[in-house]
Amino acid sequence: VSAGLEGVIAAETITSEVDGEKGELIIAGFPVEKLAGLATFEEVTYLLWNDRLPNAAQLTAFQDSLARYREIPRIIYDVLKEAATQNVPPMDALRMGASMLSLDSPAEDLDPRGQAISVVARFPTIVAAYWRMMQRFDPIAPRADLSHAANYLYMLFGEEPNEDTVRGLETYLNTVVDHGINASTFAARVIIATQSDFVSAITGAIGALKGPLHGGAPGPALDMVFEIAHPANAETYLRGKLERGERLMGFGHRIYKVRDPRAEVLCEAAKKMFDKTGDRSLYELATEVEKTALRLLAEYKPGRRLSTNVEFYTALLLHGLGFPGGLFTPTFAIGRVSGWLAHCFEQQLVGRIIRPQSLYIGERNREWVLLDDR
Ligand code: ACO
Fold it and tell me: Is the dihedral of CA 341, 188, 33, 122 positive or negative?
């Protein structure tokens, strides 16, 4: 029994390759570091879904169709409003909102690609509307004249973002767009393989992404950096955690045994961003925390080869872009949904239900006992 399915190859894919020994990530043929900082999110989504970059006309048509479906049905706003009064965490609200994308949907009139576009288009609207409702602000309607990333920022903060902020967010979204068969992508593939629909697949995937062992780590990773507050405190703080048997969020990975290449890309983007603001203190604190964490992980967990993962610098970059911690994981979902759907398309072509086996280790030949005799 392989409880975590380590080493099991469950699909062929042309979306991405993760090389955990070399620390390389290829997204549809591009090393992540040669794609994330240059492409728009629309270009990367098109690339993943079509296995080629769009030309100018294709890109315009793709951008237009994404912009056309940004609005969400009224009833989703109503449910989000109720969720906000109950202070439901944003990932739960996204899961609820996403599951309702089958309601009053343009999807019935669309071909499968159109349905997928409408799902990607509406994730930012759900997240931004919910976030504003949590602050007791009115949601801001999406704008069709902005890019996917710029419109998300606009709906969150109520003003048109500057180019550097959009670039920073797009670099993040592109970096996390796809990553082999990670837990949420696997969940989406399992669901679509039963010939279920895209909305069901992405709803299940959101549930998988939410967990702190997958997409839920960046908030706690940043909290850790803030609690440490000064490089001089890092050793005592981190040692304390490891002594108590706690995990250091933002470190360790099932596949990467060296530094996650996405951490590299996001660390670079964060550095650029903090340089522009003229205040590098948080960046410098984070890099010092990283160094100490790696040294202590090697001491407490020798041979496990625990290194920095994507979440550590996700937290730093998104925080620098003005995102509150509660939006880190939903923003991850806004990027990853394009990857989930790319895998759904592939899985549909495979056309085979995913159904592993379990090993029964329970009792046998029990005798039925009447209720009064138990
Ligand atoms: N801090 C301390 N110890 C750790 C950490 C960590 N971050 N990660 C793994 N370990 C230890 C485990 O306790 C275990 O120790 P043991 O051999 O003494 O029992 C050993 O390293 C191996 O760990 P596993 O749990 O077997 O590794 P696995 O591949 O199952 O887990 C995971 C990978 C879940 C990412 C793990 O490293 C972890 O919990 N990291 C912290 C959470 C995190 O950052 N998650 C984001 C991952 S990136 C993403 O999903 C987008």
Answer: positive
Q: Cite the active site residues.
A: 253, 311
109-147: b (≥16 Cβ within 10 Å) or e:
eeeeeebbbbbbbbbbbbbbbbbbbbeeeebbebeeebb
Q: Is 254 in the pocket of ligand 1 (CB under 6 A)?
A: yes
**E strand residue ranges, the chain:** 16-19, 24-27, 30-31
Residue 293 near ligand 1, beta carbon < 6 Å:
no
pTM of the full predicted structure? 0.93
Q: Indicate if ligand 1 lies below 6 Å from the C-beta of 252.
A: yes
pLDDT of res. 106: 63
Q: What is the CA radius of gyration of the chain?
A: 22
Rounded distance, CA 300 to CA 219, Å? 24
- Nearest Cα residue to atom 36 of ligand 1: 252
Instruction: Please state the atom number of ligand 1 nearest to the C-alpha of residue 214.
Output: 50
Give residues with Cβ within 8 angstroms of 224, minimum separation 6.
237, 248, 249, 250, 289
Gap between the Cα atoms of 19 and 50, Å rounded: 23
Q: Whose CA is nearest to atom 35 of ligand 1?
A: 253
Q: What's the CA gap between 217 and 237, in Å, rounded?
A: 18
Cβ 311 under 6 angstroms from ligand 1: yes
pLDDT number for residue 107: 57
Q: Which pLDDT tens digit goes with each residue over 110-169?
A: 788 889 999 999 999 999 999 999 999 999 999 999 999 999 999 999 999 999 999 999
Per the model's pLDDT, the better-predicted residue between 343 and 311 turns out to be 343
